[in-house]
Each structure stands twice: as structure tokens, then as C-alpha cells.
Amino acid sequence: MSEAPVAPRHGSAETVGLAPDGRPDPLLTPPRPRTGWRMLPARVGAMCVVELQKLRHDRTELYTRAVQPALWLLIFGETFTRLKAIPTGGTPYIDYLAPGIIAQSAMFIAIFYGIQIIWERDAGILTKLLVTPTPRAALITGKAFAAGVKALIQAVVVIVIAALLGVALTWNPLRLLGVAVAVILGSAFFSCLSMTIAGIVLTRDRLMGIGQAITMPLFFGSNALYPVALMPGWLQAVSTANPLSYQVDALRGLLLGTPHHLALDYLVLVLAAAAGIAAASSLLGRLAR
Amino acid sequence: MTDVRETTAVPALVCEGLRYAFGETKAVDGLELSVRPGEVFGLLGPNGAGKTTAIRCITTLLPVPAGMVRVFGHDAAKERMAVRRLLGYVPQQLSADAGLTGRENVELFARVFDVTRRERAARVARALEAVDLTAAADRLAKTYSGGMVRRLELAQALVSAPRLLMLDEPTIGLDPIARTSVWEHINAVRTATGMTVLVTTHYMDEADQYCDRVALMHRGRIHALGTPEELRSELADRRRAEGKTDPDPTLEDVFRDVAGSGLDEQGGDFRDVRSTRRTASRVG
Ligand SMILES: Nc1ncnc2c1ncn2[C@@H]1O[C@H](COP(=O)(O)OP(=O)(O)OP(=O)(O)O)[C@@H](O)[C@H]1O
Ligand SMILES: [Mg+2]
User: ipTM for the complex?
Assistant: First the structure.
């Protein structure tokens, strides 16, 4: 090549080398490591980007997953609105139900996220990521937020369906931002729960079985379909321990303006997500072995 | 370019007394190895020899329960992050993400190795170019052939400019033309960068042709080590001394010689065969 040769950057053994033509090839200089707190957001960003790229290439999942929440709102919501069987404090039942269905459809995605992790393990993708300068907790946090991004897109779809069905939701951007945060935190928790179980049972089939066994109790044992006050005492206890209830409470408060406990809701969601990340990270090594 | 590295005192990789057992199975049983900077080092052995297990200890995927592993002086048990920054790793199975394009697959690795946004596009394009995938870069990886996936994985490993490239059976399951092409790319990269390459394979002919030095591994241990030429002429001399008049021995003969008759009986168990098959099939 005609370019003037560039002097080697360092003469030490650390130098990887130069291209034969004397120009520094980008592939010859290792990138400068991000350190400290800047590493975590970078990894989370990388995982979220991958999730979005996959969704862009294959949107079928997005469409098929919209069917179930649409049916819940359309059939269950419309029917019970007419029956007026559930006391919702004056809110039409379908309005009351919509935030619950947003939370439920987000949870359904997250609770099976561990299957994707096992698939990535079997396909060698996870293995390779574990040989990058990414601490396990950062990898899990990245995956948890990636699940959150996926769930968020799902939530947008459900919100649009609900709006089409005439549910009076808020369009206040600040409140919608709060909704997004609650959806992402809830999904982070449920996906970590799923990845934790994946780290324990290690196979797709078993995780699938457990996932199916726990989704309905989590759903029915929450305030997604009916107010906590209607539940028998033991179910109220379940609901109190169920992060889904706090997520629904926050969504309902923000979207409909019903009475809420936002501070407590976000506190519980943040703590649950953090605990989930800790648990899933500690078990990730088992998947790699 | 390699002179700079050859004068370096620190070996690219040292394993001393490395052991790893899965329950009763002693997969790696006292591995002694020293890889010089800038060389292409072949770790050869039959199914179940412990090659992959050794690689997984070196790449920090498995702990180092006994013995010591150092990559350019960094302890693989204690300085995991430092070791990972120096490594490029292509596992035995085809491991590109089928739901992403070739370029996106490489971009992911640029991101997790902290390539800045400003540099990313150029570096990724360069890595894809180095393995001749520029034209196919924006196709989904699930449309790639086995050989293309292997080259894509090579690009993923190269994008972070590793100093030690670890390739576990890079040519398994590929047709002869794809095999040659993968080796030619490995060689070109080595010549251009002076990178150290550790590669495992079953194919003695490939090792003979492309590796500077090889180690013959069997039942978790190294049984012979040297340049392919040295190992072959050693055996030829020995045979001549015994008065035999066979044709020139191949690396495979050397291997049969050092591994003894045990080779035929213990040619790997069912799990090995299955994982080899899985590797041979298309990317998930
Ligand atoms: N995850 C595992 N659990 C139990 N045993 C294992 C596991 N991985 C490997 N082994 C056993 O350890 C031994 C070495 O296996 P390893 O995969 O390291 O061999 P290899 O030389 O890479 O073989 P191949 O050429 O088939 O890839 C074998 O006996 C194998 O059955
Ligand atoms: Mg192997």
C-alpha cells in the first residue's frame, strides 16, 4: 500500500503487531477495557440489542403472543364487565382487567426465558459469552433486562389492544414511563426466577414443566383478575408475597389512576429483581459445566 | 512480526499438573504443556482424550481444581477477567446465533469486549473481511453452511484482537474444501497478527500440515510433543533400529505408537460420539 507506514504504538511485548503493510489493522489492537461501573450498562445494552435484533428478524413470536391477552380482554373482560360480578370500585371491569393482563402477558414471556438460556447453553452461545470479560452477574443482569425489553414490547401491544377495545388508559408520558419501568422490573424478576430454576433443573423439559406449573398459581394468586379483598385469607397471603401483585398495583395506579402504593410497589419490584439476579448468577456456573 | 513475540520470555500458555475429573472419570490427568508465543500448537487425541476439558479449564469455563494454568503469565484460576481478555475461543460445537445475521453475531462480541461505538463498525467489517464473509454478512446465520459458520465464529473470536486463539476442533464435520478454507484463514490470521493459536483436532494429516508443534494427548495426558517432523523422524529412526523396513511413518503411526493398543479399545464412549455428531450437524 502507498500510505506512509505508521510507527508501532508500543515496542513492548504487549504489542500485538502490525499488518504486513505497516498500517495498524484494527484487529491488531485489543480494545481498551471498560472498567468499574461502566461495564454493567455496556453489557446490559449489548444483551438488549441482541434481543431487539432477534425480534426484528422474526416477528411471529410478537404476533402469536398477542393472541392470548387479546382473548382475555375480549372474552373475559367484556363478559365480566357485563356481569358486574367483581366489585372494582366503579371502574368498568375491562379497564380494571387491562393492567392485570399487561402484567400477566409480560410474566408469561419472562417465566419461560430460562428455556432460551438452556437453548443458548446447548447451542454453545452461552459458553462463548462466559469466556468474554463479563462477570456472571453482569451477564444475568443483561439477560434479565433483555427479557424486560421483550416484555415491554409485548406490553405496548397489549396497551394498543386495550385502547382499541375502548379501555380509558392514561397517555401521560411520565406515567407511561413508570409503566415501562414496572414492566421491566417485573420481567427482570420473573426471568431471573426462570433462569434460577434453569440452573437447578438444567434441562428444557423440566423447566417447561415447572414453568407451566407455577404460572397459573402466580397469576391467580395475584390481584390481576380481582381485588385482594375478595380472596380467602390464605390466597391473600400468597398475593402479598407475589411480586406480580405489586406490579399490577403499580400499573393499575399509573394507567387508570386507581388507589395505589407506588413507593412500596417499586421497592418490592427492585428488591425482587435484585434477589433474582443474585440467585440466577450464583447458579449460572452449573449451566456452563 | 513474530520476532517480537519469540523474544518474549512469557509463554503464551502453561499448564502444569492440570487435573480435572467428572466424578470418577479423570478427563484431564496431569497435563503438562507450554505453548510459545506466535506458534500454531496442535493438541491431538482421539475421542475422550480430554482435549475439550483441558480447553474448558484454560478458558475459565471450568475451575482448575489441581495444578496450574497460566495465559501470558495470568493465572486462569485467580485472574479470570484478565485471562478472558486475552482469549478468543471457538468451541467444539457450532455456536453462532442462528437468529442473528453474521454481522450482528460479530457485533455482539465487539460489544462485550468493550469496542467503542466509534470503532465498532470498522472492526466488525474487518473481522468479517478477514474470513471472507463480507458478502454474506447481512444474511441470517441459519442460512450459512457449516464452513461459513466456522469462519463466522473465527470472526467473532478475532474481533477483540485476542493474543491466544483457542480453537476446539475447528474443522470437525466439514467437507474437505471447507476444512482447507478454515485452515487457510487460521494461517492467514496468524501470519498477519502473530497471534498464538491452540487448536485441537482428530485429523493427524491436518496437524501435520498446519501446526508448528503438536502434542499427542491420550487419557488426559501428553504422550509425545514436538514438531510433526521431529515426531515422525523419531519413530522412523526407532523402526530402522528395530530392523523394520516400513514406509515413512505418518503422524498417525506416531500416535498409534505412543498411545499403544489402548487406542482401539477406548476410542471414546457414547457421549463423545453423540457430541461429535451434534457438532457435525448444522447450527441450532
Ligand atoms: N460434562 C461431562 N460430564 C461427565 N463426563 C464428561 C463431561 N465432559 C466430558 N466428560 C468425559 O471426560 C472425558 C474427556 O472428554 P473430552 O470431551 O474432554 O474429550 P475430547 O478429547 O474433547 O473428545 P472429543 O474428541 O470427542 O471431543 C470423556 O471420557 C468424557 O466422557
Ligand atoms: Mg472435544
Answer: 0.86
